[in-house]
Amino acid sequence: MTTENTSPSLDKAAPASPAPVDAPAAADGAVTAVDPRLLVREQGFGGYITEFKRRIRAGDLGAIPVVLGLIIIWAIFGSLNSNFLTAENLSNISVAMVGTGMIATGIVFVLLLGEIDLSVGSVSGVAGATFAVLSVTHGMADWLAFILAILTGTVAGAIHGFFFARIGVPAFAVTLAGLLFWSGFMLQLLGDSGTVNLSADSLVAKLTTYYFTDVAAAYGLAVVAVAVFFLTSFFENRRREAAGVPSRPLSETILRSALLAVVAFAAAVLYNQYKGLPLAVVIFLAVLVITDFVLRRTTYGRKVFALGGSVEASRRAGINVALVRISIFSLAGTFAALGGLFIASKIAAANQGAGSGDLLMNAIAAAVIGGTSLFGGRGRTWNALLGVLVIVSIQYGLALQGIASPIQNMITGAVLLATVVIDAVTRKTQKAAGRA
């Protein structure tokens, strides 16, 4: 018997590859969906109008309300008192806003999580007292006392974040307890005298008293700011074009840079008409640029926005929710301490009233008025600048008119309420438009 070995047929060795299938033709009269952002590129400046109307209908107002509000405020007070729009007054406003603005920057981070921090006022007072006691009473080097004062805020915020993120205590309760504890701790640090005066030559005192008197400083900063903005936007657009995603046309980048140049050089002219460029403003702007970059350009910033959108979704995506929360409250404490040092510099002392009064409410109001949502997930650190500028402008304008502090608080409260109402209406509009 013989056995015949046979090979399988080549025709059966592999299945034939399926023929490509063409997409069916669109039905007659069908409208192809186009990304609204592409309209700007396709229609030029006419596309901007279309895009603007679309954003308004969708409730995406951005910074429009607060910018219009600031213009109205300055116009009203400028018409009531000719001293309001002088170089001296506007320069003083820009320096006075830095302390509260620093605290508001930390509040922006907390609000992005949809939480609140009620301890920042007391923490700012502790930082000022820490520096004053270490530097003046104990003779420590200013730079070392400055660092330790900042670290007090970082540690305080980390403690709040730990109880909130790890133990599960609501942020409102934890920071309310912190408000009371750190207020008492500050009084304990200051001792029986209750006030420690700072030397005019100390590091902290110079934060709000030092000015770059050379006119080249203000103009140079304006040139650098415009150049960095243009180059950053230009290369970002090139990168997006290479990736095949919507990007702004060069004409829009040039227009935005031109508008920034107008504002920057107008501010430079104003500063040079008084004492020069304030150091406090330079530091504040640097902080805003760095924090804005962290929020919008880093993985950490995306995690913060993700947590503000949905904690559960963030956890399922692998984000360490507890660690991010603790870090956010640490940042809030750090910025509170930095703001407290600017406030101590403004009065050249650390006293029992530091961190009390309306400081906490003004810091929170500044973040909200500037455009940060109380509901979390929407906001930028530049909102702190816009918001605190509105609040301090109201305070200085009313003070020039001789209006008492209670009326100032009433007006600030009304502005805050209007902002929150706009925020709530905006969210409802966005939900109706399917964008929230």
Identify the notable features of this structure and list them briefly.
disordered N terminus; ABC transporter involved in vitamin B12 uptake, BtuC; two-stranded antiparallel sheet; 436 residues; mainly alpha; two-stranded antiparallel ribbon; 70% helix; single chain
Brief characterization of the structure:
The chain is an all-alpha fold and 436 residues long. The protein has helices spanning 38-43, 45-57, 64-80, 87-112, 120-137, 142-167, 171-190, 206-209, 215-243, 250-273, 279-297, 299-309, 311-316, 321-347, 359-369, 382-400, 405-432; strands spanning 195-197, 211-212, 277-278, 349-351. The strands form two sheets. It has a two-stranded antiparallel ribbon with strand order 1-4.
Description:
The structure is a single chain. By secondary structure, this protein is mostly helical. It has a domain at 62-213 and 275-418: ABC transporter involved in vitamin B12 uptake, BtuC (Orthogonal Bundle). The chain is built from 17 helices and four strands. It has a two-stranded antiparallel sheet with strand order 1-4. It has a two-stranded antiparallel sheet with strand order 2-3.
